[in-house]
Amino acid sequence: MSFPEVTAANVAEVLHNDRMVIAGVDVDGQLRGKLMKKSKFLSIATGGFGFCSIIFGWDQQDTGYPKELAICNEENGYRDLIAVPDLSSFRRIRWENKVPFFLLSFLDPDTQEPVCACPRGLLKNATAKVEAAGPPADMFAAEYEFGHFRIPGDSFSPERAASGITSFIQNNSVDSLPSLTEGMFGYSMTRSLHSENYHDGILDACEQFRCNIEEWRAKSGPGAFEACSEAKDMADKASLCKYVVKAYGIKHGITPCFMAKPRHELPGNGGHMNISLITADGKSAFTRDTPDPSPPYPDVAHLSDLGRQFLTGLLVGLPDIMPLFAPTINSYKRLVEDLWAPNTVSWGLEHRAAFIRLITPPTANANATRFEIRVPGADANPHFVFAAIIALGWRGVEKKLEIPVPPLPKGEDMSSSSDKSMPLAKALKEAVATFTRLDSVAREVFGDSFVEHFGGTREYKIQLWEQAVTD
C-alpha cells in the first residue's frame, strides 16, 4: 500500500481526518501517545510541542522510579520535553477508521538534541557514525517469536477483551490461562487455521500500516508463532508490528505475549535480529568476491575484512550491553543451555546455539551474507537492540579488532558452556553492574547520560524482584 510523502509543505492537504494519533517510544519499547486535533497538529508539525518527561520516569506500570533520573526529576520540575513529529513516519490506523498516525522523537528543550534515553534518538546517533563514513548503509531484519493466550469461556466480545484477560489473571493462576492452540507444532500448516481471521487481519493490517510481515509461521509450542520482516527503518516497524498484533488481539479475545520466557517447560520467545551492511552498488559489505584461501577460521572464509571487524566488535562489546538485549528479570530465564538461546560470547557458521549465527555462502547468496544476533528476546526494545548492534559493530571496524574467540564447536561439544567461550551474565543484576561500570564499552559508545538513565531504570526492576515474595 503506497503512502504519500508528507512534508511541511503538503501536510495540511494530506491529512483529511479531523484528528490523528501521535506516539513516541519509551525505554521499555512501549508506545506512549495521544489523540490530537488536526488544527493543533498543523501548528506543531514542524516545530514540535511540549510532552511531559514523566514517560521517561515511569516503569511499564506507570510507577515512578524511586531513583531520581536526569531526564525527569523533582529538580527540573518534571518538565516538558520537545516532541517532534516525524512526518516521514505517516501511516493510517486501519482499525481506527484510518486515522493518521505519526511517530515522535524527543528533544532536550535546552540543547534541542535528542534526549539521551529517546530510543529513536539513540539509534539515529548510532547510525550517524556509519553514515558519516560513507557507504555502506545498514539493513536489518527482525524475527519475533511470541505466544498467544485466549480469554477462557465460549462467549467473547471486543468490549470485554482486555477486562476479561485481566479479570481472569487476577483470580486464577497465570499458568491456567489457556493457549490459543495446544501442542508442539513448529512449521505447522494448520495451526493458523484455528484463528484464521486474527492471523489474516494482522498480516493485512501490518501491510497497510507500513510494517509488513514477510513470513508468518507456527513455532514449536502452544499458541506460539513467529513473524519475520526485513526493511529499512526496521526498529520503527518492529515496534509498530508489536502494536498491531496487540491491537488485533484485543478485537479477537487474544492476548499476545512477547515475554522472553512465559512458561518454564517451553522454549522462550526470541527477538532475533539480522544485520548486513550494504555498499552503494547494492552489494553486501560483509562478503568477499572470492573465498579467503587462508582464513583465521574456516567459518569466516567468505567474510570480508570489514565483516570480520564488525563481528569482532559485537563479540567484544556484548557483555557490556546485555541489559539492552535482555532488559528484564525474566529475560535471563530464556538464556539457558540446550534451547538454542545462547548464554556465552560465541559465534559460528550456521550455528543456532551461538550468540552470532553467520549466514554466508554456500548456504546463502553472497549478497545475503549477514549476522543473526540471537541473544535478544522478544521483550527487548528494538531501537536499543539495533543501536547496540550498529554501535558495537562499527566500533570493531574503527578499531580494526580481531576475533577474540574461536567459533563455537558443533556436534557433541556444541554446548554453550564450552570453555572456549566467555559466559554472559546469568541475571539482570550482574548484567547491569557490567553495563554501568566506569570503563564499560556501553559508556564509550552511548555516553554516560544514557548509561546512567537506563541503568537506573533496570536497578528498579532488580529492587522490585529482590523485595518480592512469589508463590
Describe this structure in words.
One of its GO terms (molecular function) is ATP binding. This is Glutamine synthetase. The protein has about 475 residues and is α+β, with helices and mostly antiparallel strands. It has helices at about 10-15, 40-45, 120-130, 160-170, 195-210, 235-250, 305-315, 320-325, 330-335, 380-400, 430-435, 440-445, 450-465, and strands at about 20-25, 30-35, 50, 80-95, 100-105, 135-150, 215-220, 225-230, 255, 270-280, 345, 345-350, 355-360, 370-375, 420-425. It folds into three domains: about 10-115, Glutamine synthetase, N-terminal domain (Ubiquitin-like (UB roll)); about 130-135 and about 280-465, Glutamine synthetase/guanido kinase, catalytic domain (Creatine Kinase, Chain A, domain 2), CATH 3.30.590; about 140-255, no CATH class. Helices cover about 30% and strands about 20% of the residues. Strands 6, 7, 8, 9, 10, 12, 13 and 14 form an eight-stranded mixed β-sheet that branches. A hairpin with a 5-residue loop joins β1 (about 20-25) and β2 (about 30-35). The model has no long low-confidence stretch (mean pLDDT about 90).
